[in-house]
Amino acid sequence: MTALGVNAVNMALIPAVVGYPLILGLRKVLPKTKLWVAIACGLAGFVSVTAGSVLYSLEYAVGGATAVPPVTVAVTTIGTYTVIAVFEGLVTGLIVAALLRLRPDLVRVGRHLTRASA
């Protein structure tokens, strides 16, 4: 599998395996409002991107075929992706907040909000 293939798998599986369960868990402990659902989604977006960079760094350490030390790759990758994760979290939270206002039926994790107010 190529580095691009591994990264594509990471980008597809990490949000499903880490992000969505995190949203569901946060939804149980946070206040049941649209704002907190959006914050939970943004936080899950941040964690998913960061977790993907950690997984990639581990994969590189196991199978890296270059002379670059795995620690250097890990520090650089995780550091860079943490900055990206901040923007991912912000954009995700803002989009979910907008959708909850305009089309709450499209936000699966916010369905409990529309049922309660109906």
What coarse outline follows from CA principal-axis ratios?
elongated
Strand content: under 5%
- Distance from N terminus to C terminus (CA atoms, Å) equals 49 Å
How can the largest sheet be summarized?
Answer: none
Discrete helix count: 4
Mean of residue pLDDT values? 89
Q: Supply the number of structural domains.
A: 1
Query: What are the secondary-structure elements, in order, as H or E?
Result: HHHH
Number of strands: 0
**Low-confidence residue ranges:** none
Q: Radius of gyration from the CA trace?
A: 17 Å
- Determine the structural class based on helices, strands and strand pairing: mainly alpha
Helix content: over 70%
Notable characteristics:
118 residues, mainly alpha
Show the helix and strand layout.
Elements: H1 3-29, H2 34-63, H3 70-102, H4 111-117
Task: Describe the structure in your own words.
With 118 residues, this protein is mainly α. The protein has one domain. The protein is 82% helix and 0% strand. It is built from four helices and no strands. The chain has helices spanning 3-29, 34-63, 70-102, 111-117. The longest helix has 33 residues, at 70-102. It is elongated and about 55 Å long. The termini are far apart. 25% of the residues are buried.
Summary?
The chain is mainly α. The protein has helices at 3-29, 34-63, 70-102, 111-117. It has four helices and no strands.
